Amino acid sequence: METCSEDGCENRAAVRVYVPWADDRDVCTAHARAIVQSEGVVAEPLDDAADNWR
Ligand SMILES: [Zn+2]
Fold it and tell me: Taking a C-beta distance cutoff of 8 angstroms, is the pair 11, 36 a contact?
């Protein structure tokens, strides 16, 4: 299982975020919802987590 790449977060990574000013990374849904508030960020659910994201 892959975990969220945010510091100190132990949640399962469920979403890949494409950040124009940083590396792409996999994060949990909670972090993804926060990150996508920033302009230009694209979030894509990982295949096995689409049900949790929608
Ligand atoms: Zn997280």
Answer: no
